[in-house]
């Protein structure tokens, strides 16, 4: 891939790759490392992508696989969510509370929520990206919504 091809893709998808990695790993340093590794792999990639959607799907799939490798490493340790949360800027206080609630979910629920609600993927696409049946995605999203309702019911403005 040439610099001219790579630069706009990296600028467009770097945040998405980081969000997926952080959602999966819950460690800013590991997410930064995975983001860098994935973008390097994109730069070295020889194949031509059919569309921007194809590039984005490829990046998310590679990101998830890299995250799985990191979690298998003996040195992996997740950081406290508050460390990362303090670096984020939220337009309104309820966005911070919603972020905290989503990040408190188990990984199997957190990643589908991120891909569905924040990245705009359909359930079928999420199933393909995560290598799980579409019905499993539907179930995980439904369970995540129930868990979020329970978590947010304890927050006065959502109760």
Q: How does this structure look, described?
A:
It is built from eight helices and no strands. The chain is mostly helical and 159 residues long. It folds into two domains: 78 residues, Rna Polymerase Sigma Factor, Chain: A (Orthogonal Bundle), CATH 1.10.1740.10; 71 residues, Arc Repressor Mutant, subunit A (Orthogonal Bundle). Helix 6 crosses helix 8 and helix 7 packs across helix 8.
Protein traits:
single chain; 159 residues; mainly alpha; Rna Polymerase Sigma Factor, Chain: A; Arc Repressor Mutant, subunit A; 2 domains; 74% helix; 0% strand
Please provide a brief summary of the model.
Helices cover 74% and strands 0% of the residues.
Shape: globular
Name of the CATH homologous superfamily of the largest domain: RNA polymerase sigma factor, region 2, helix turn helix motif
| H-E order | HHHHHHHH
Task: State the total count of DSSP E strands.
Answer: 0
Q: Within the CATH hierarchy, at the fold level, what is the topology of the largest domain?
A: Rna Polymerase Sigma Factor, Chain: A
What structural class is derived from the secondary structure elements? mainly alpha
Q: What is the share of helical residues?
A: over 70%
Provide a count of the helices: 8
């Amino acid at each position: 891939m040439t610099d001219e091809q790579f630069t706009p893709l990296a600028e467009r998808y770097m945040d998405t790759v980081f969000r997926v990695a952080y959602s999966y790993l819950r460690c800013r340093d590991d997410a930064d490392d995975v983001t860098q590794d994935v973008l390097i792999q994109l730069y070295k990639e020889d194949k031509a992508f059919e569309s921007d959607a194809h590039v984005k799907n490829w990046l998310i799939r590679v990101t998830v696989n890299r995250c799985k490798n990191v979690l298998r490493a003996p040195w992996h340790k997740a950081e406290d969510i508050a460390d990362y949360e303090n670096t984020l800027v939220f337009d309104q206080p309820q966005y911070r509370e919603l972020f905290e609630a989503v990040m408190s979910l188990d990984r199997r629920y957190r990643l589908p929520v991120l891909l569905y609600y924040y990245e705009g993927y359909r359930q079928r696409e999420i199933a393909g990206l995560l290598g799980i049946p579409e019905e499993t995605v539907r179930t995980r999203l439904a369970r995540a919504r129930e868990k979020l309702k329970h978590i947010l019911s304890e927050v006065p403005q959502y109760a």
